[in-house]
Description:
The structure is a homodimer. By secondary structure, chain A is of the alpha+beta class. Chain A has helices spanning 35-41, 52-60, 73-83, 114-122, 139-151, 166-173, 182-199, 209-214, 219-231, 236-249, 257-266, 271-280, 284-299, 325-332, and strands at residues 128-134, 157-163, 307-312, 315-320. Chain A has a domain at 128-332: 3-Layer(aba) Sandwich (Glutaredoxin). In chain A, helix 5 (139-151) links the parallel strand 1 and strand 2. In chain A, helix 5 (139-151) packs parallel to helix 7 (182-199), helix 6 (166-173) packs across helix 13 (284-299) and helix 10 (236-249) packs across helix 11. Chain A is globular, with a radius of gyration of 19 Å. The model of chain A is unreliable at 1-123 (pLDDT under 50).
Amino acid sequence: MLGRSAESAPGFPTRELALPRPRHGQGTAPCRPPAILSLLFLPGRHPSESHRGERQGRRSGPGGAGGAGPAGEAERARRGRRSGAGGGGGAGPAWEARPRRGGRAAPPCPGAAAERCTARRGARMGRTLVELFYDVISPYSWLAFEALCRYRHIWNIDLRFRPAFLGGIMQQTGNKPPAMLPKRGEYMLKDLKRMAKYYQVPVHMSPDAFQHIMGTSSLTAMRFITAIDMTNPQYLEPLSREFWIRFWSQHEDISQPESILAVAQQAGLSAELSQKALEMISSPTVKDRLKDTTAEVLKYGAFGMPAVVAHYDGEPHLFFGSDRLELLGSIIGEKWLGPVPSPKL
Amino acid sequence: MLGRSAESAPGFPTRELALPRPRHGQGTAPCRPPAILSLLFLPGRHPSESHRGERQGRRSGPGGAGGAGPAGEAERARRGRRSGAGGGGGAGPAWEARPRRGGRAAPPCPGAAAERCTARRGARMGRTLVELFYDVISPYSWLAFEALCRYRHIWNIDLRFRPAFLGGIMQQTGNKPPAMLPKRGEYMLKDLKRMAKYYQVPVHMSPDAFQHIMGTSSLTAMRFITAIDMTNPQYLEPLSREFWIRFWSQHEDISQPESILAVAQQAGLSAELSQKALEMISSPTVKDRLKDTTAEVLKYGAFGMPAVVAHYDGEPHLFFGSDRLELLGSIIGEKWLGPVPSPKL
């Protein structure tokens, strides 16, 4: 489903599993969510109707610096290869009228701001590493995921996605799903509806949403995601998003192999790659990697997800929930501009 | 300790208890927190050094509209009587260099913006009633309390304080204090430290903070606050704030009669008024009022505090926690400007 750049063409990995894992913020995965999202939130505006220059003008005003614009193709490609930001440039709802199939996605830096932008991206040493630990069974994790996807082009951060297993965290800490308290469950239903709308993330709640969670294990899905993370990390972001869409927008299964393969296809993985990843999920390598990531976030002090760990000033800072991104910004010296920020670069 | 306007001079109530309870947003209580707060956060700037015009210039720029300014005294008094905003004008940290003893506090509307401001305050019918249900044992309630105190001068809301009993809510819903989960307790300690700093509210956390909570009942304090709410609501705000300061800044007792009298004195209540309120706390009238308020917030779906209920579009909307004020704003059509907003009027 996703339009792919040359760098992210699927294929089985040539890298060894033991190679140092690249920072996902530096990967080549495009930050372009599926068309369904634009349809869900912008029904009058299909991606195919998009016109980047026009959009930028409307969003930022004539003199403003938007997230898309007519920067040179060569510069665009260079930036894309260097920072992985070429595919997912700009901020705001990532799916807002952005072309998905064919062609290159809009670059993050428009003409006038390109120099400043390039200089900023060049200063990688000064960037804050922000790790998002998540499980696709967690709807609040989706909110944090999308919001951080937007902010990685605005804040001076390297965003790293860390798939972990919520069931393991709950078991290890003795935590219980919050919705097990009936009043809290009722509230969460309303809260998620409102938050989803405000964050422009298509979580669709239903009265039986929590039964749906309780009856589903995300273990196989998170192992599959882990296998992809280890082998073809450029798919980590679209794959994770497609799992959330399937479970939280479409209310369909994500635990069975056929469901997982369908999700992978939506995320743009080839049948061959998906099949190989599916075979890997029962390997000790993948199982141990998921266990290790889960153990790591527990070590940071997590008791649920999403858990955001910002490495700042020589220390890890844990933030729990999708509602601490403003606080995260204040700690790392970046300004919160709401869940759907306008690009400033 | 609080500087008082003529309207809020202490004295035992002449109103009958059965009289309709005024909206607190319309009361005459000044929104001026104690000097200790300015000392805690602005050590280089004592309230007595304040210069409102200068401050406004620094905060809003020469052409900006600040929260304080040289509006006419008559207009100021009129507004103060009508909307209760005269004493607590402006936004930002309420205690920022604002005189506490003697004299009138800064008005909310500076010269140039006075007309617009007056027109807005005049449109009471269009204002959203926002109720804050709180217990002074809850530190997150304090964050919400102070943030809403700032926003009531920026958003088109009538803010009503609703003292309730957290113990009753927990018992009725089966909820447990979150810090009972060890990992969550560790996290909350850090979270509260960071949030307090970011919200500019002097919650001082200590490693034994949660034992401190568990070993303290707020029932007597909340009954005392309720008695004052029923008889002299102009003191509800400063009294509640002083309870938080005593418990969460100074780590002192708030359960014994002598502690409560000390708090009341700090809030500016006369010895006579405090003594009478203390005698009232065992009356069925006060007990029932606290029970009724607690039952009311339970009916709205609360399972903890703070609980904010916004009456908007013909419906009550419940928000749990101090971290949903941005969402609250989005629902009622008001913009979140961070926990310490600059005044826009």
